[in-house]
## 1
Amino acid sequence: MSTLEQTLATIPRTPPQGIADAVRERWDSLTKPRGSLGRLEESIVRLAEIQNTTKPTTERRAMYVFCGEHGITEEGVSLYPSVVTREMVKNFVRGGAAINVLCRHHAIQTFVVDAGVSGPKFEGTLDRRIAEGTRNFLHGPAMSRGQALAAIESGIELAGEAAERFDITGVGEMGIGNSTSASAILCVFTGATPDEATGRGAGLDDAGLAHKCNVLTAALAKHACDAADPLAVVSAFAGFEIAMMAGFILGAAAHKLPVVIDGFISGAAFLIARAFYPAIAAHVFFGHRSAEHGHARLLETGHAPLLDLGMRLGEGTGAALAIGLLTSAVSLYREMATFAEAAVSDTNQKESTSK
């Protein structure tokens, strides 16, 4: 049995019994009107179910930024050349990017994962490089089927390592051209049209957007991928960083490690993970609603994000902010006084007994 098959067999099929009821009972015992913290309350219910405890925690926090280069950039689908991926990895390692700032502010340990960046290997990154970037999927598969499986299983293994050290993790990415890969994946798994799936990425103008959509249309026509064969979809269109994120999401679920998904690109990784394990949404959080055009279609499947700030930076920035929000919610859940402790009349109890 492969690592992927073992992982899929290990993911809990149903939520642990009694956890949700116990967490809701505590929320209702705290000095506030019942349900007054809105979705924060249900977010902690989900966190508790994933961690299989009535005392969920986010004390040990980590962010994994997966990086890879894309051959599709040869078609001019991005405002920036592929070399910017490597330059940004250096910036991550030096601590100068937006994700570094947010992670420092929220006490989130940051890991930069080299999933497939060209050139000499970096000091200060986690070396999981599959190859020096993918091939141009307008002319053939982005990677071999074997490379696709290797990237997914590398992500699974990385999640196993993370589960031994952290209570919650976020996933983000960097890869010039990866919004085109994500759009292709969205089309295959949701039936979205290229027009619905294609966005401006790093800032394309109208002409650039139209060209990107045309490239995507041609690439989809070239690869007759079956959504029922997710490894074929990964091979055809994904980047190594996207495939590795998908594996990380699956591996984390198997180890009861909550994952906060960032935006559109990491959302595409979620779609891959969901194709392998349809109930994976119960094991993750969606950090924010990206302004990237295709993300709205991805979220139509009922996955409500924690934040909606009009962001589209990537890197894990939305996930970092969402981890900060979840950490605040955990503090409320664990530190607020109950009605009995505060000697406050329990209006929640009065309401429930009067019905």
## 2
Amino acid sequence: MKRLTTEEEINFIKEITGDPEKNNIISSIKDSFNILQVRSQLLLGLITICLTITGFSGHRLAASGVPARIALFTGVISVLISALLLFFGPLKIRWITTYKTDSFDETVFKMLKRRDNKTKLYHIATGFLIVGLSSYIISLAVFLARYSILNP
């Protein structure tokens, strides 16, 4: 795909908006990128909560033993990997009207491939976040077992 100059992008936008069928296709693709953006921001919010909780209570969880430390470490690393995948995947901004190939169909194909790649990274990031949250829960369970159940 060729990166367009501002003048070329203006012409491409005129081409798209001048043809209702092309406009509908581009709008559909734009909507799918918006969905990925919003859902990625939701995951980023959960990541922020996890890291904030770790900052406040991570040291207490880690003090409850080696299993809790391992689970907490796994959780932090998994959550950070999830954040990196989101930053370099779905949250990376690239305007859909700034790139174009020789034909409209090929341009749409490349846009859909880009959307699919971002979707894959979103799903992988979600998997790492689930591993991270599960590890946090394991760490908390170890902490509670050590200080609540074993020492009433």
## 3
Amino acid sequence: MTTQATKNLETFENPQTDRDYTIRIRLPEFTCLCPKTGQPDFATLHIEYIPESLCIELKSLKLYVWSFREEGTFHEAVTNQILSDLVKSCSPRFMRLTADFNVRGGVYTTVVAEHQAKDWVSTPPVQLP
């Protein structure tokens, strides 16, 4: 059982490929370093996705997120990098990553990045009475 940070994202087969369903993952312990000061930045990552044929394995996701702890990066860059890596690993129908960074110098930052597969069309939401 590994506990080393890694950029390797593992996947498993989607058990229900004939249906659109949403997987929501919340990672409240994301950290990276400010590229200007070297101080730690803290964020909660919210991942929402509709899988195609593969789903993200959660332990590998945790180890992947840990790999940013010693990296200096801007909020916008790291959010888009994580989304790109996740999309590359599982090719979802749709994915949204919201990175909600803690306050730094009186400023809160939230970065939202999305991916949508070219041929996928979202089903209209159901309105219940």
## 4
Amino acid sequence: MQGGERYNSIGNWLKNYFGSKTVKLSIEAGFTCPNRDGKVGYGGCAFCSSGGSGELSSTIEEQIELLSNKWPDAVYLAYFQSHTNTYAPVSVLRDKFYSALSDPRISGIAIATRPDCLDEDVLDLLDEINREHFLWVELGLQTIHKETSDMLGIGYDLACYDKAVSELRKRNIRVVSHLILGLPGESREDMFESVRHAVNGGIWGLKLHLLNIVSTARMNEMYHDYIPFESIDEYTDLVVDLLEIIPEDITMHRLTGDVPRSILVAPQWSYKKRTILNEINRKLRERNTFQGKALLNNEE
């Protein structure tokens, strides 16, 4: 862990790797999703917004223009975020990925996708890119519990996710998994079980998302009065406890989740991203704890 932080943040990891502040540019590449176009289902996963969880995405040019004054010496990664970014013919994927990589200001790419959209030809393309460029691939695990997954309408099972991780790791491709905290019906132990499964699967990075119920997602109709966590204090206590069981070499890409306030329904405080992160760091210091501590002490 770098810079005195008590967890292995992706920001510090990237700064150490590239030697400079590194910024992800969220790219809208025009993809859709098999859970929207009818191949798997319609309407997307219950938690997913109409923008495919990429409301802040735009073009490389637009984002560099916005960020260059703030970070004039930054390294940039193109982040294919919205919807499912391997859900297209390989010729289309090749064109979009290499188009981003051909920009001299781009030092690598990150690709968010579904485990069921990694056919052999897609894996071969990712392998090819990974041999010459910096790459990571993000997979939405969300939960390991079938009842919850079925409720969310995700459309693939845990075995599919596990296979995708295995195939990517065979090719030495960095894998980042997504988990959602606060899903309806899940207990504290359920969330711990999902984290344990993810971190024991050979992943390189992990995103812990605070469940945000947004007005443009089906979950808003299904659980309109549901509040995932009553307070910042309750949520941050959980995150600190979870960090203690996550191996210290796993990069932490997210410890909360934020969406535009214009579509946020609950929890109403979740837009306070900086406050939430500050509280997590405060509690880590107060407890004198850190990522992976429970593993070192052989306790939970």
